[in-house]
Amino acid sequence: MGGALSFTLGSLLYPAMLGVQKVSGAPERVVATPATGPLTAADQDFVVKVRAAGLWEYPVGQKASKKGTTKAVRNAGEHLVDGDAALDAACRNVANQLGITLPNQPSPQQQSFESRLNAESGKQFDTDLATTVRATNGQLLTTIASIRSTTRNSLVRGLADQANDTVLDHIAVVETTGLVDFGQVLAQETTSPGLPAQDLTPPPAVAGQPQVVLTPPANSAVSPSPTAG
Question: Are 32 and 151 in contact (CB under 8 A)?
Fold first, then answer.
C-alpha cells in the first residue's frame, strides 16, 4: 500500500498550492483600487485558492467524520468541515465586496484527491486522508504567509488571518491521528509532477448557476469572523 500511496500522491500534489495554478505574469499588478486598499492579481488568486481548497476538503471531511476507523480521524474530519465552512463564508463575503468571481468546483487535481478518497476505506482511507490533507495544507500555509506579508488590501489581510488559523488547526488535527507520512509530505512539497495548467485551475462557475455554499454543522465550534460579515 505504501508504494501505491507514494505513486498516487506523487502524481497529484504540487507546490502550486492545493492544486490551483500560480499567478502567471505580474502577480503584483494592481487590478482594482477599492476603498479597502489596492487589489493585486496575487490577491485575487489567493481568494480563489481559499475557495477551491474548501470545495474539495469539506466533502472529504464529511466522509472522514463518518467512515474514519479511529476517533482521531473522525475528529479530524469534523474539524475540516467546521473550519472550511466558516472560512468559505468569509471567502465568499470578501469576494463579493471585491468583485472576485469564485469557482463552484475545485480544480481537476483536487477533484482527483476527493475521488481517490471516496474509493478508499479502512486504514488506507485514514492514512491517505491524513497525508494528503497535511501536504496540501502545508503548501497553503506558505502561500498565506506570502499574501499576508505583501497585500495592501485589508479584506485580503483579514481573510489570510482566518485562513492561517484554519490551516494550522487542520494541520494539527491530522498530525494528531499519527498517520501522516511525513516523508511523502516533504516529497510532494518539493517535487513537481508536471501536471498541465488546466489540471491545476478550478473551472469557472457556470453563468446563472447558484453559488455553492459550504453549510456549517449545527454544532459548529468556530466563532463567526468579522471577515465573514
Answer: no
Quote the cell numbers at residue 27: 502577480
Give exposure, 177-205, as e/b (b: 16+ Cβ within 10 Å). Answer: bebbbeebbeebbeeeeebeeebbbbeee
- Rounded Cα–Cα distance for residues 60 and 132 (Å): 11
> Of 227, 217, 224, 193, nearest to 61 (Cα)?
217
DSSP label at residue 23: P
Beta bridge partners of 40: 30
- Going by C-beta distance under 8 Å and a sequence separation of 6 or more, which residues neighbour residue 119? none
**pLDDT in 10s for each residue of the chain, 229 residues:** 444 444 344 444 433 334 344 444 577 899 999 999 999 999 999 999 999 999 999 999 999 999 999 999 999 999 999 999 999 999 999 999 999 999 999 999 999 999 999 999 999 999 999 999 999 999 999 999 999 999 999 999 999 999 999 999 999 999 999 999 999 999 887 776 677 888 889 999 998 899 999 999 888 766 555 554 4
Residue 120 is given by DSSP the state -
Bridge partners (DSSP) listed for residue 39: 32
- Burial of 71: CB neighbours in 10 Å, binned 0-12, 13-18, 19+: exposed
Strands 39-40 and 30-32: antiparallel
